[in-house]
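Handoff note, outgoing to incoming analyst
You'll be picking up this chain. Sequence as last confirmed:
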Amino acid sequence: MTTVIRGATIVTCDADQRVIHNGGIAIGDDGLIAAVGRSDEVERAYPNAETVSGRGKAVLPGFFNCHTHLTATLSRGILEDLGFPTILRYPEQAAALLSAEEMQVIAVLGAIEGIRSGTTTFFEQGRGVSTYAAQLAATGARFVLGESMQDVTFNVIRAGSPLTAASDFSRETAEQAWQRAVDAYESWHGKADGRLTVYFAPSTADSVSPIMLRRSRELAEERGVGYTIHLSQSKQEVAGVMAAWGVLPTHYLETHEFLGPRLVVAHCRYIDESEVQALGRHGVGVSNNPAIAARRGAAAPALDLEEAGCGIGIGTDNMAEDMVEAVRTGYFAERVRRNDEFKPTPEHVLAWGTIGGARIMGMDNTLGSLEAGKQADLFVTDLRRAHMVPVLRPVSDFVNNAQAADVEAVMVAGEWIMRDRTLLHVDEEDILTRAEEIAHRAWRQLREKHPTVQMPFPLAEGPAF
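Most recent structure output, in case you need it:
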C-alpha cells in the first residue's frame, strides 16, 4: 500500500534545493518515491494511501556516511584524546581481543547510533567485514562494505614510524589481501535485496605498494564498483610516502594510475595545492570527515577540493557515528578554516551529507534526494523542540541547531527501520548492555596483558550499567 507523509516540511536536497512547506511525500509499495509536492495535491493523487501526519516535522533524505569504521566504537572516550597515530603504545589493539560475536555487537552498536542520527547508508571499512556483514544487513540500513587491504610488512599506524623503502612490502601479503577482498565481494555484493554493496579498499597511502594500487583499481573496474583509500590523514603518512617514493601521497597515487572518478578518498587533511588540483583533475570523490579531523586539530580544504572538481561527501570515521554532528562540524570547520562568515552555506553542507555523498558513491540516480522515482531513503525529524523553534529557515535551523535525538523515524527503500524513536530490527537494549560489558572486559584485558604500557588517564572501574 502507498504511504503518504502529509503536512510536513519536505527538504528535498534536489538540484533546486526545494523546501516544500506543508508538503507531502508518497511512497509506493515498491519502495520508490511516487510523488513529492504540496500536501493537498499529493493526498488527492493517492486517496487510498495510508497517511502519516508530518505536522511539526521535517522530512529529509537519509544521510550518507561516506567513511566509517563501526567497530571503532569500542574505543569511545579513549582514542579521541590520544592523537593519530595514537601515542598509546600497546602492541595490539583492544579489538584484537574480541571474538567474532563480540565484534558483531560492537559493529551493530555503531550502526544504531548512525541510524538514530538519520543515516541510511554507511560506507564501512575494516579488516574482516564479512564476519559482521549479516548483522549489519539485519538492521535494515544500506551498507557499502570495504575489506581493508595492505601489503606493507608492518603496521604503519601502530608502529608510528614511516616507510623507508619499497622493500617494506610483500607480494604474498598483497595476494592474501586481494583474495579476502574478492571473497567479500562474492559473498556480499548485492545481498539483502541490494542493500549491500562491496567496494575495494586498499588501506592507506603509506601501507600499499604500487602493485596493490593498480590491482585494487583493476578489481573494482572489472566488477563495475568503486574503490577507496585513506589519503593524507596524518603527517606520518606524508613523511612515510615521501621517504619511500619521493613524492607527496596524492602524487604517489596519481603516478600509479590510481586516481579516477570511481575513487573515494578519505580525509585529505594534509594536502597542498598541487594535490588539490590533481584530485580535482581526475574527478575524485572526497569523504570529508570533519568531526574526527577537528578532534585531531585539522581540517580538510573541502571547498577548495570541490572548486577544483572533486565531489564532496561527509563521513564520521572513528568512535562516533552521529551524522548530525558531522554535518554541523563540517559547516563550522570550513568557515573557520577559510575565516569566512558566509561560506559554506547550511544548504551547501547539507547537500554534502545527502546528495553529495550519493554522488561520490555513484548512487545519486537512485538515492540522496527526495524526488519521484528515487528510493525512499529518508528520515523524519521533530521541529517542535525548544532548540529548533522558531522554524523560520528550516535547513539553516537544522544544520545549526538540530540534534540526533530529534530524529524520530528512518525509512530505507520504503520500509521503516525506526519508528517513534524505536529501532524495529535491532534489540537495542541488549546491544547496549553487551557492548558495555565487552568494551570494559577488552580494555581491562589489554591493560593486564601489557602492564608496562602507561594509560595517560584512568578508566572506569567497570560497566556503568
